[in-house]
Amino acid sequence: QVQLVESGGGLVQPGGSLRLSCAASGFDFRRADLAWFRQGSSNVRDSVATMFRSGRTAYVDAVKGRFTISRDNDKNTVYLQMKDLKPEDSAVYFCNAGFGTLGTSSSYWGQGTQVTVSS
Q1: Among the four 35, 39, 48, 107, which has the fewest Cβ within 10 Å?
Q2: Contacts of 4 (CB under 8 A, 6+ apart)
Q3: How far is Cα 65 from Cα 59, in angstroms, rounded to an integer?
Q4: Taking a C-beta distance cutoff of 8 angstroms, is the pair 72, 19 a contact?
């Protein structure tokens, strides 16, 4: 049974930092592409950061230089380190894993973790 379990969300002040974690099980983690998506007030789920199994990463322009995606294949965990957080980063953050299928219904999704950036 595939599981993706996010943790690390919460309330943080503008300029603060958070690290999200996503523990995976039930599939070949080392061979998977991984990503973080977020869904804010627009109710649209957008890609934030991607790490392909090759190690190549990609970020949406709004988070470049502030967010870092990483993976630990020994722990089957993907991380999203977020710094210099802004109110517009507030959203539910979802972990996503797939094999050439990121972001689709054929990929795997976590349940989401809320990040709120507010003073």
Answers
A1: 39
A2: 22, 23, 24, 95, 96, 97, 108, 109, 110, 111
A3: 9
A4: no
Instruction: Encode burial over 51-88: b for 16+ CB neighbours within 10 A, e otherwise.
Output: bebeeeeebeeebeeebbbebeeeebbbbbebeebeee
103: number of Cβ within 10 Å = 16
Q: Where are the beta strands (DSSP E) in 52-105?
A: 57-59, 67-72, 77-82, 91-98
| Contact of 38 with 92, CB cutoff 8 Å | yes
What is the CB neighbour count within 10 angstroms for residue 3? 12
Query: Do residues 112 and 94 lie in contact, with contact meaning Cβ atoms separated by under 8 Å?
Result: yes
